[in-house]
Amino acid sequence: MVNIMWDVIIIGGGPAGAFCAYLLARNGCSVVLLEKGEKFRYKSCAGGVTPRALSLLPKVPEEIIEDRPRYLRVFADDVFFEFKLRGEGILVYRSKFDQWLRDLAESEGAVVKYNTTAKDIVFANNFVEVKHTQGSEEGKILVGAFGYSGHLFKKLGIEPPPYSLAVQREFKLPEEDIEEVKGAFETYFGAEFCTFGYAWIFPKSKSRGVSVGIVDKEAKSGLLLKLDYAIKNHPILSKKLRNATLKYVSKVHVSASVIPYGITKKIYGDRFILVGDAAGIADPISWEGMGPAIISSKVATDVILKAIEENKFDANFLKSYYKKLYNILLRDDTIPALRASKRVCIDAEFYSNFNKAMLLCAKEDKKFREIFIWTFSRERPFKYIDEYVRKKTFCILKHIGIRNALRMISQAFLSKLRKSQE
Ligand SMILES: Cc1cc2nc3c(=O)[nH]c(=O)nc-3n(C[C@H](O)[C@H](O)[C@H](O)COP(=O)(O)OP(=O)(O)OC[C@H]3O[C@@H](n4cnc5c(N)ncnc54)[C@H](O)[C@@H]3O)c2cc1C
Question: What are the tens digits of pLDDT across the range 56-72?
């Protein structure tokens, strides 16, 4: 049997791959999308879709929207603040949301192959071949939208990006308890359950569900124990979940997954482009990954359409993908956020005190409150958030206690020095 020569082969049917397949098929390309999971597969995710992500997508059907958060509630030890959000963020279960995107791609003519795991990638002179569990595909160009797959990074000869670890449990709440969490993103900072990250309750009110999880930049294991500790013992979280029962979403109640960040060293090459988590572009502060995935797919689509038009698929031509992504997302958003994260994630005690101090500043300063909102909504790139926070360094240090801050910074510096000498 003769193989079809696809314009584009996409590996991975998450938001990055599915949205890319949709856009390319809509623009007349022949596209095959390979997804190792089944239809409605579970994806470990809190399901927060920011206004910036929504602004690029077609209208999300009402039946997929589980909640519309109007508030951001931040808890840092004994300090609490509730921020009123603007904009139209939504909360979804990824099983349904990703299926909707894959169905959209199919409705535009893309072929979606489920239960199909890509195993090998072979580059020939005039095409790329992807060998998978059901056979193989040949295409002009490959889009790697496979999230974090050590195996496929290796096949592409790419060093995998660093990653944080996140764990999550799905619960159901009684009607009266769901009212307490409905319509708000809740985030919890605290050194006792998290080194460099936060815990969350993201409501899925329509189904009386809540996703409860922790992300930690530093953790490589043991995070589920910390989550369970927080669920049982955190004075506020435990109260909100006192009547919670297990909920199975696409057969899953508990999950762990990584979030790649730090930008994969090579996100394009001869006949391939990486998008979404595979490109390592999740936000290292809020850990939003869907927005960057969707943005990168839009940029990749524009470049691929031009590549097909000009029949040029070499790395030199495809480097415009990196350039465009750099201008649109990386330069003002991802890279400043990475730098800021490096600055504050120096020591667990410092990180915890820093977040508490930020919240205390927000209580005093209206502009600071905007900063918190931007961090989660990304209506402004991180560069602007960082500029303002830097201006307010003295205010933050005052709340941490200048002596205290100096002690923690020098402690962190000495421990780094010791580690480098070992
Ligand atoms: C616990 C947790 C909570 C999170 N919460 C949020 C949130 O609230 N908001 C937000 O924006 N982001 C969140 N994120 C991050 C977000 O989930 C990711 O950044 C996002 O899913 C990236 O999309 P993607 O399409 O690049 O990758 P993915 O969604 O990971 O999709 C990759 C797809 O590729 C498939 N695949 C992998 N290997 C192969 C293969 N060999 N062959 C075929 N298919 C393959 C997988 O099955 C998967 O469907 C969270 C992450 C975690 C872990």
Answer: 999 999 999 999 999 99
Q: What was the pLDDT predicted at 273?
A: 98
User: Between the CA atoms of 327, 332, 333 and 335, what dihedral angle is there, to the nearest 10 degrees?
Assistant: 90
- CATH number, domain 5-47+94-161+262-333: 3.50.50.60
In the numeric block, the tokens 């709340």 are attached to 399
pLDDT digit string, tens, across residues 118-159: 999 999 989 999 999 999 999 999 999 999 999 999 999 999
- The residue whose CA is least distant from atom 2 of ligand 1 is 45
Domain ranges of the chain: 5-47+94-161+262-333, 163-260, 346-417
Task: Report helix, strand and coil shares of the chain as percent, to nearest 5.
Answer: 45, 25, 30
Q: Which of 187, 259, 275, 285 to mutate to test the pocket of ligand 1 (most atoms within 8 A of CB)?
A: 259
**Residue 29 pLDDT:** 98
Nearest alpha-carbon partner for 311 in 107, 4, 5, 63: 5
Pairwise CA distance, residues 68 & 57, whole Å? 16
pLDDT of the residue at 80:
93
Looking at the DSSP bridge assignments, the partners of residue 197 are 216
Say yes or no to pLDDT of 5 above 60: yes
Q: State yes or no: pLDDT of 2 exceeds 70.
A: no
Q: What angle (nearest 5°) sits at the alpha carbon of residue 212, between those of residues 47 and 145? A: 35
Does residue 263 line the site of ligand 1, with CB under 6 A?
Answer: no
User: Helix axis angle, 393-400 relative to 402-421, nearest 10°?
Assistant: 90
User: Which CATH class name applies to 163-260?
Assistant: alpha beta
Q: What is the DSSP string of 358-374?
A: HHHHHHH-HHHHHHHHH
Query: Residue of the nearest CA to atom 16 in ligand 1?
Result: 289
Among 116, 111, 128, 60, CA closest to 88? 60
Q: Is 391 exposed, middle or buried (0-12, 13-18, 19+ CB in 10 A)?
A: exposed
- DSSP-derived secondary structure for 78-105: TEEEEEEP-S--EE--HHHHHHHHHHHH
Residue 260 CB less than 6 A away from ligand 1 = no
